[in-house]
Amino acid sequence: MKLLSAVPAVPDLRAALRDLAVASDGKAHRTYAVLGTVPGASREELMDLGRFLVRLDITSLVVVGDAGPVHAGAVLEGSWGAESRHLPSEQDALALLRAELADDDVVLVAGLPAVLTALGGAA
Fold first, then answer.
1. Of 97, 46, 93, which is closest to residue 74 (Cα–Cα)?
2. Strand 60-64's sheet: what is its strand order?
3. Total domain count for the chain?
4. Which of 85, 98, 91, 28 lies closest to 53, judged by CA?
5. Entry pTM
6. Residue 43 belongs to what domain range?
7. Which residues contact 84 (CB under 8 A, 6 or more apart)?
């Protein structure tokens, strides 16, 4: 698994999501965006991140806690459903990721230090 991390701020997340899409190597690798709280972001900014993520063709979105509008934006884009999950806690997200991730997946984690650390990144 290749692990990417991003600062949980809207401009940084947009750039990191573009990097995640590129890291799929032409869809040769599944891509996961795992997002937590984005301080200072409005509901509309978070929903826009969800729509942006769908347009980038990210494989799967895992949203935790207060970042729920990202999930809403992705699902409302029309072409997504089960690809996006909104979970209550970092522990739930970590359990889901441990069950689903494969060695060749690329994962972006933002705003979830416990998940990042557990997956082998530096928080």
1. 46
2. 2-6, 106-110, 31-35, 60-64, 84-87
3. 1
4. 85
5. 0.94
6. 2-118
7. 50, 60, 61, 62, 63, 71, 74, 75
